[in-house]
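User: I'm putting together notes for a lab meeting next week and I want to include a structural view of one of the chains we've been expressing. I don't have a solved structure, so I'd like a prediction I can at least talk through. The sequence is below, exactly as it appears in our construct file.
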Amino acid sequence: MARRRSSTLTEAELRLMEVLWEKGQATVAEVTAALPPPPSAYNSVLTTLRILERKGYVAHAEAGRAFIYRPLLAREDAAKSAVGHLLSRFFDNSAGTLALRLIQSERPSNEELTRLKALIETYEEGPK
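Assistant: Thanks for the context. Below is the predicted structure for the 128-residue chain, given as C-alpha cells.
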C-alpha cells in the first residue's frame, strides 16, 4: 500500500520531478542524463524515484529490463501544495499576508503591478 503523499517535495525529489514534468516520462538513465549539474549518481536517482513512487508522486511501467517513470502529480498541483504548506507554517493560512510580504521584499515588474491592480479591482467589486 502506498504511503500518504507528503505535502512538499525535497530538493532532490523536485529536481527529478522537473525532468519528468518536462519529458512526460523517462527511464532512470534518461532522468540522470537530463539533470542539471552537479551530476547525480544513477543509484541515487533510482533510489529517489522509488521514494517518489512510494509517496505516490510517480508510477512506473516496465519496458523490457528498464522501468519508465511518469509523474502522477502535475507541476501546478505540486506548487499549490507547496504554497499551502508555506501558508500554514509561516503565515497563519493568510494568502494576503504572504502577498504583502512578497511585494514588500521585492518590487513587482510593471506587468505584474498591472495584473495585481486588476485582481484587486476584481476583489473590490465583490463576488459575482
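A couple of points you could mention at the meeting. The radius of gyration is 19 Å. The beta strands are 26-27, 58-63, 66-71.

User: Perfect, that's what I needed.
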